[in-house]
Amino acid sequence: MENRLKSLLTTSEKLVKLKTEVEEAFGVPALFYINPTLSHLGGYDHIRAQPTFVFHPDHINESNIAHEMIHALQKKSGFPIIIKDLVNDKRFTVIQELNSNLLHINLVEQMSNRGIDVKPYISSTITKLQNFIHNKSDVKKMRSIGIPRTHYDAIVLLRLKYEAVYIPESRKRKTYRLYKSRYPEAYDLFTELVNIIDTYNMHAPETTKEAFKKCLQLLQKEADYSMYIKLLND
């Protein structure tokens, strides 16, 4: 698998170009690793000064590698990226999911403009989302948890709208209808979040940050996210 990673980074013109952009932006070589114990597809280390990427050996593909390198470029461009857990509870999971969704709106456009398929990196998440809403017992269980679980489930639905560009709108509407009938509180919050997001330019760092704050102000009505609103204001 290590050979496959090296091969893609040297033979895929799209990845070669991206890697060059990353290294020029940071001024140092990018580092790439494989970790079979990774619990997710891959990741970009937001903390290290040198751009560092790690991937699960089962998910070495152009889409996943490009996805993580674009996150590095977003960080260098000043897009809001929150890595501090200021609450030590499930609210941080909500923050991470919202942050990821907002960044991925720009990321999907960047990948599309570069001719890179988004489906390999996002399809498993979309499938889980669709399977979840079809399972009435799972939905009932999540609804019983309440806030902030409802916040999280509403935000995850944003992935279907903004990231699953390979799914026809007619199929998306079927999933929306299921959410509306089986999980109305999550669906209603989802529509409110969409109304906020669609008023901002999500391809510029400052306006993405403003959208982030507005979304948190909406969620603030039901749970305390004030420390993150303050963080974004600083």
Search tags:
mainly alpha; 2 domains; 3-stranded mixed sheet; 11 helices; 3 strands
Fold and architecture overview:
The protein is mainly α. The protein has helices at 2-11, 13-26, 62-77, 91-113, 119-134, 136-145, 149-162, 169-182, 184-197, 205-219, 226-233, and strands at residues 31-34, 42-44, 52-55. The model has no long low-confidence stretch (mean pLDDT 96). It has 2 domains: 2-77; 91-233, no CATH class. Helices cover 66% and strands 5% of the residues. It is built from 11 helices and 3 strands; from the N terminus they run H-H-E-E-E-H-H-H-H-H-H-H-H-H. A 3-stranded mixed beta sheet has the order 1-3-2, covered by helices on one side. Strand 2 (42-44) and strand 3 form a beta hairpin. It is globular.
